[in-house]
Amino acid sequence: MAEPAYTIPAFRQRTAEDTTEEYQRVSTNFGKGLAVIQEELHRMRMATKAQVDSLAIQKEVKDMMAKRTDLLEEFPKMPDFLVALRPHTVWEKTPVKLFCTVQGNPRPIVKWYKGGVPVDPLSAPGKYKIESKYGVHSLIISRCVVSDTAEYSAVATNQHGTATSTAKVTVKRPAGSAESCHLGLVPHLTEIHPSKLEVTLLDRFPVSFGVEGGSISLVCTMVVVPDLPNVPPLAQWYRDDKMLKPGKLAEMSTCGGAARLTLPHLAKDDEGLYTLRIFTKDGTAEHSAYLFVSDAAPSAAGAPGAPMSVYAYDVNSDYVLVAWKPPNTVNEAPITGYFVDRCEAGADTWVQCNDAPVKVCKYPVHGLSVGRSYHFRVRAVNSAGISRPSRKSGKVSALDPIDSERLQGTDEGAPSAPGQVVATRNTKSSVFVQWEAPKHHKNLMGYYIDGRVVGSKEWFPCNHKPFKHTRFVVHGLIPGETYTFRVQAVNIFGLSEESQESSPIAVEPALATPSAPYGITMLSSDGSSITVAWKSPKHCGGSKVNAYYIDKRDADTLVWKEVNLAAITERVCTVDNLTEGVFYEFKVQAANMAGVGVPSAPSAPMKCEAWTMDEPGPAYDLSFSEVRSHSLVILWKAPVYTGASAVSGYFVDMTKKGSSEFVTLNQEAVSHRYLQVTGLEEGETYVFRVRSVNANGVGKPSQLSEPVCAKALPGTTEIVAGVDEETGDVFLSLEACEICETSKFVWSKNYKPIGDCPRVGVTAKGRTSRLTFTNPDKDDLGRYSVVVTDTDGVSSSHTLTEDALNTMLELSYAIRHPIVPLKHGLNYEILEKGHVRFWLQAVKLSPSVSYRFIVNDKEVTSGEGHKISHDVASGIIQMTVDHFTRANEGTYTVQIHDGKAKTQSSLVLVGDVFKAALKEAEFQRKEHIRKQGPHFSEYLYFTVTEDCTVMLACKMANVKKETVFHWYKEDDEIVPDTPPNVMSGACALPVPLFSRKDQGIYKATLSDDRGKDTSVFDISGQVFDDIINAIAQIAGASASDLVLQCTPEGIRLQCYMNYYTEEMKTVWKHKESKIASSEKMRIGGTAEMAWMQICDPSDKEKGHYSIEISDGVKTHTRTFDLSGQAYTDAYEEYLRLKAAAFAEKNRGRVVGGLPDVVTIMEEKSLSLTCTVWGEPTPEVSWFKNEQEVASTEHTKITFDGGKFASLVINKVTPDDSGKYSINVRNKYGGEFVEITVSVYRRGEQIPEPKLGQPKMATPAATPSKSPAPPSKTPTPTPSKSQTPAPSMKSAASTPASTPVPKSPTPTSKSPTPTPPRSVKSPTPPRFMKSPTPPRK
Length: 1336
Fold this sequence. Notes:
- Residues 387-420, 1246-1336 are annotated as: Disordered.
- It holds the Pfam family fn3.
- Residues 306-401, 417-510, 516-611, 618-715 form the Fibronectin type-III domain.
- It comes from Acanthochromis polyacanthus (spiny chromis).
- By secondary structure, the chain is mainly beta.
- The protein contains 6 helices and 90 strands.
- The strands form 22 sheets. Strands 2-9-8-4-5 form a 5-stranded mixed β-sheet, with no helix packed on it.
- The longest helix has 32 residues, at 35-66.
- The radius of gyration is 59 Å and the shape is elongated.
- 32% of the residues are buried.
C-alpha cells in the first residue's frame, strides 16, 4: 500500500511581526560603538543556549520514548503527555515559549496555570499567547520580566481523567543587576546550597531486571556546574512515588558525577517504578524506569514463589495481626495456604506461628512477650512444596497501641476477574497493556499481568509484585514476536480468576512522529549559499522518514524562516539567497506518516563566505556498521567541496570518548569511503573523524562522529554463505537479532549498495534476508555487507573468496546433478565360516532406493550362495557369498539409484589380492571346523613369574570332562606333577631354572571324540631371547647391591637376585671398562647370584666395579667401590684366608690303611699299618688308652720312608684290648685316628665292636674377617686338590673348615702351629672327611 503524500501542517506557516518588533526594541538598547562586543557576546550566548537546548531536547526525546503509550484510536484513553513541559531560563525583556504534546481520546482540553492561577490572555493584552494545533499546545510569554519567574502548568482534561505537566521559568537580568550575568561571572556566595547547582542528566538507568537474592545498581550520570566535591547535588530516590531512605536494603550515593542506588538484597518487594529526583537551580531534574524482580529458583520443583510486603497491623501487647501480598502463580499449582514465622529482634532463630496453613493473607500472631520486638516472615504452600521465605517485616514491638492502624476486611473472598484487556504498541521491546477494573474490588491489593507467545502454552509473569493501576508497560519482550496477555486481581484472600486474553499484538514501536535530526554540519559555501547536511533521527517513530524541513535565521535575530516548502528526501540541502559575511543558524525537522517531529537543536552559527582553500572540505555523514567487541567498520560520504583538485583519499582518526588526542588509523590515505577498524577494547567508547586528501594537502576534519561503544548487540549473528539444498543456488544469508515493521535489509558490495542488479537477487522472510547469486563467477568475489534499517545497528559482512566460491560451486553442481554420496566405497571382508561380504555405505538412503550387484559383467541376484540386502538407517548395501572359491575372482560393481541421484562403485579382486582373500576365506572355514570340537582359544604363549619360573600357558574352549590334554617336548611326552585340568579353561607348564638346555619345540594337544587340536611353541631364536629378556627384567629388578666376599684365591664381588643364568645379558665393568673372564678376572654365577672374582689382587684392581643386567629395554645396574679402606680390609682378609688354605693343604694326616675296629683272638699278631702324608714330613705317635706306646718287642712301632707307619703287637693278650690311636702332626697341624682293639680268648664268642668318640686335635683358630653371606647362598664346587684323596676312614682335624651350607666360599679358621707333644690330642673320629682345598 502506497504511503499518502505528505501535507505541510498549517501550524508551520509562521509570521514574525511580533518577534521582529520585540527584537528591534531590545537591540536599540545597545550603542553602535559596542557592535563588536555585541557580536562576540551574542555568539557566546547562542553557543551556550544551543548546548542547553540540545540537552533539553535529548531529554524530551527520551521521555517521549519512555512514555510512548499510544492506544488505538477506537479505544478510550485518558490524557497523557508525550512531550512534557521543560524549564526555561531567559533574559529579561525576551520572549519564551512553553510547549507540550498531549494525546488522549477524546481529544483533551488543555488549560494553562501560573503558580496555580489560570493564565488569562485578556488580563494582559499582548503578554500571553496560547496556541493549540495537532496536539501541540504552546504558551508564549512576550517581554518577560523578573516577576514572570514562576512554575507554569499545563492541565489536560477529558472525560476519562486529567494529566498535568509543570515547568519552571526563570527570568534573569543582564550584568550589573542582582542576578548573575550571561557570561558566567558567578558572584561571591557565602554558602552554596545544592539547589543552586546546575545539573544536567546524561546517561540514565534503563528498565532493569533482577532476581530474588541478587543485587542491582541503578546509576544516572550527570554534569554538575559548579562541580564542588564537598557540595554534591541533593538527590532523592522514590519507589512507586514513596521516597526511599538509606539503609541496609537501599544504599545511596551521589558523587563523582553520578547518582547511584544499590539494592544489595533483592526481593520482590523491591519491584516498582524507581524515580531519581535531583534538585537543581532551575527546579528539579527527574528520571524514572521500572525495575522487575523475578522469583528465585524454588526450594522444590513446582513450589510457589515467596509472598511479599509483609506488614504488621493492629499491634497489641499480646498479639499482632500480620498481613502480606500473595505471589503470582502462572504455571505452578494453586496456593493452599501460608505459614507465618516470627523471630525476636537480634536473634536468628525463626519459630513457626501456625501449625496448619492459613488460607487468607492475614494472620493474628499470639503469645508475644510484652515489650519485646519481633520480625515476621511468610512462606507459601502448594501441593509441590513450600516457597522460599518472604523478606522479613520491619521491627514490631508488642506494646499497647495509642493509635494503631486496623486492617479491616468486611468483604470475604477473592475479587472478581478484571474486565477487557487491551494491548497496544509501545516500543520495540515493550507493550502497553490496560484493562478494566473488576466489578467487585473487595479491598484490592493490585494486579498480576501474565503473558505468553502466541502458539505457546506456557505463560510467564510480567510483574512479580501486585501493581495498583489498570495500565502497565510490559518490558523485556522479543522484538517482532507476537504476544497475548491476561490479568488477575489480588486481595488478601488470593487471586481472582484470569481475565479474558487480549488480542495478539506484535512487539513494534508505537506510531509517532520521528525524533529530531541532529549533527547539522556545513559542507561548503560560495558566498551566497551554504550547503548543510544532517543525520537521520535516532527514532523514526515506527514509520519511514519521508521528508525533511529546514529553517534558517540570521544569528543576530530570533526569527526563523523556512528554507523549503516542498519536502526534501535527502539529508543534504543547499540554502540559497544568503548574504555574504553574515552568520546563519539552521534547524531541521523530520516527518513521517504521523506528522512532523520536533525540530533539531539550532546549529552552530555558520558564516556565509566563499570557500577558496585548495584543500578539500570535510567529509560528512559518518556512520558505523558491524560493531563488535574488538572491531567496527566506519563509513562516510565524500566532501561536497573538493578544493583545487579531486579528492584522492582519506585519513581516519580515532580517540577514546572524553579524550582530545586523536590517533590516525591509516598511515596511507585510502581511496574508498570505508575502513575496518580493529584492535578495539571491548566495552570502550570511541569517537572518530575523517579528513579528506587531494593533491594540495589534507582538508579540514569532518564533524566528530557519534560516540560508539565497542560491544556487539545481544544475539548478534554473522552472514552465512551456503548453497540451497533444493535448488543448488549459492547464497549469503543473515538472520537479524532484531527487526521492526519498517526495517529493511540493505545489501552492499564493497560497501556500495547493490540495488537492482541482474547478478544477484535479494529476498527477505521474517528476520532473515538472503542474497542469491544468479550465475556466480570470479566477478562476484568481494566483501558483502548488509545493514538492517530502523534497528540499533544490526549489520554484518562476509568476504567471498575464490576458494570458498569454488567449494560452493562444487556443492551446487552436486545438488543440481545429484549423486548418492558414499561414506565408504565397495569393499570386502572375510566372515566366520569363510563367507565373504561385499559392502558399501552411503551417507543417506531413502526407502525407495534401488540397486544391483554386477560380477564380471553379469548381474547377481539374491539366491543360493548369495544373500543381498540393505539397511536404510545405516546406508549399507551388502552381498554375502557363502562359498568363496577360485571361480569368484573378478570385478564387482554396485549400481545405486535413489530418486534423482545415482552412483556406482567397483572393486577389482584379481591376482595377489584375490589370492590373499581366498587364503583368508579358507583359513576361516578351517577355523570354523576346528572350533566345532575342543580347540585352543589361545595358543601356547609364555609368561615369567616373580621367582623367574617360565610358564608355558594356553587356553581352551568347547571342552568336556572326557577331553584329554598332553604336553610334549621334541615329541617326548612331559608329565607334570599336577595333572592339567581342562575344565578350568586354561593349562600351564612350569619350566623352572630356565636355561639354554630348555630350548626345543613344545607341543600341547587337546582331543576327545569330537576332534583334536594342537598348539606348537618353538622356544628358540627370538622366542628364546624374549624369554631370557623377560627373566632378566624380573631378576634385574630384584638384584641386590654388590657384596664383597674374600676367598683364599682372591676378592669376590657377588650380586644376589631371584634367578641367574649365564644366558642373561650381564656385563661386569671396572672403571667403566668391560671385564672379560680370564685367569685374573673370573666371571661366573649360580642360580641365585652372579659373581666376579679377582684372583691374586693387586693395587691395579682397585676402583669402581659395576654389573649391568639388560632385559632388552632397560638396563639394571649395581655398583661397588673397591678402593680405600674397603680394598685394604679385603686384601688383608684375602691374605689371611690364603695362609689358612696353605696350612690346611700341608698339615699332617692319615690318608688310609687303618680300620675302625679290630677283633682278634689271643696269641695272634696284630698289625696296624697306615699311610701318612704331610709337608714337611710329619711326626707319628701311637697311643693306647691315651697313653703313648713305646716300641718294644711285644709292641713294635715302625715309620718307613716318612710315608708308612705301623704298630705290630706280637701274640696279643686280653690285656692288649683297648683304644689305640695314631697322632700324625707337623708344623701346620695334624690329626688323630682311633682304632678299637678287642682280644678274645679262644673258644669265646666274638664280642660286639665299640667305636670310640671322635676328638679333634686342631688348635684354636682366630675368627674370619670375611662377611657372612646370606643363609641361602649356594656353596661353589671347589677345585680338585693336588694332594692324594683321603681315605674314607680319615677325618679332618679342623672342623671350622667345614663349608657353611649354600655358601660360595668356605669360612674356615686359620690354623695355628701344632701344640706341644706333651699335650695329648684327642683322637679324631674316623667318619669325618677333610675338604679338598681349592686350586689356585
